[in-house]
Amino acid sequence: MKILLVYPKIPKTYWSFHYALKFILKKASFPPLGLLTVASMLPAEWDKKLVDMNVSTLNDKDILWADYVFISAMIVQKESVKNVVNRCKALGVRTVAGGPLFTYEYDGFEDVDHILLNESELIMPDFLHDLKNGAAKHLYSSEGWADLTKTPLPLWSLIDIKKYAAMSIQSTRGCPFDCEFCNITSLYGHTPRTKTAAQLLNELDSLYEVGWRGAVFFVDDNFIGNKKKLKEEILPELIQWMINKKYPFSFLTEASINLSDDDELM
């Protein structure tokens, strides 16, 4: 099976950093972490390629190479998604889609052959089983939340890390708050779920081993959502890892303002 993973174009918005990237000679801010993780969930014997349309061009020959095109996107990428789906349909290549855009607006993408709602860890086994047996459905959904301790390492070999300003990893999903401007809790819940410290360090090791040196963005919805685990398990291990490796990375993340109420955490 040949699988092409496509990350659609991000328009010129704040998060694209379109103009700023030119000063540091990079093509995009961050790699498509979701697709790289999904790639690791697919059978190892399948051939996989990834086209991030923010760093390279999606050609018809790329689409025609594939048996299936996997697409992941956020809402801001909607117009680019429509273009990709239309191209795949015109070329007769079947599509599989997931991510926030499709989870919220799945009824607007009838031309997508298979739509996977919610978290891939829960959905992918059923989809792959049905696909193998020639019985894949149009729509897949799930109940509950994924166990992040079972999330595989991203398949970094699918991208050219030199084209990005920073790498991304995820240690938690979910946020204990319910801010009116944010949709995170509807996607990932109120109870922060975390990876283990060993799992997190393994991901950092994988980035180190592929040669990355520089910024690493913890894409967590709220990095301090589970303060107790962060202080007692994660940060001590992370600090020691950085010392042992002689500080190869600089970290950035998103955290709620109650960080300032916790002197120990600060």
Q: What can you tell me about this protein's structure?
A:
- By secondary structure, this protein is an alpha/beta fold.
- The chain folds into two domains: 2-140, Rossmann fold; 166-261, Transcription Regulator spoIIAA (2-Layer Sandwich).
- The chain has helices at residues 33-41, 60-65, 78-91, 100-105, 120-132, 184-188, 197-209, 227-244; strands at residues 2-7, 47-52, 68-72, 94-98, 114-116, 139-140, 167-169, 172-173, 193-194, 214-218, 249-252.
- The longest helix is centred in the C-terminal third of the chain and has 18 residues, at 227-244.
- It starts with a strand and ends in a 14-residue tail after the last strand.
- 32% of the residues are buried.
Q: What name goes with the CATH superfamily of the largest domain? A: Cobalamin-binding domain
Element pattern in H and E = EHEHEHEHEHEEEHEHEHE
**CATH domain class name of the largest domain:** Alpha Beta
What is the count of structural domains?
2
How far apart are the termini?
49 Å
Shape descriptor reads globular
Topology:
Layout: E1 2-7, H1 33-41, E2 47-52, H2 60-65, E3 68-72, H3 78-91, E4 94-98, H4 100-105, E5 114-116, H5 120-132, E6 139-140, E7 167-169, E8 172-173, H6 184-188, E9 193-194, H7 197-209, E10 214-218, H8 227-244, E11 249-252
Parallel strand pairs: 1-2, 1-3, 3-4, 4-5, 5-6, 7-10, 10-11
Antiparallel strand pairs: 8-9
Helix pairs in contact: 7-8
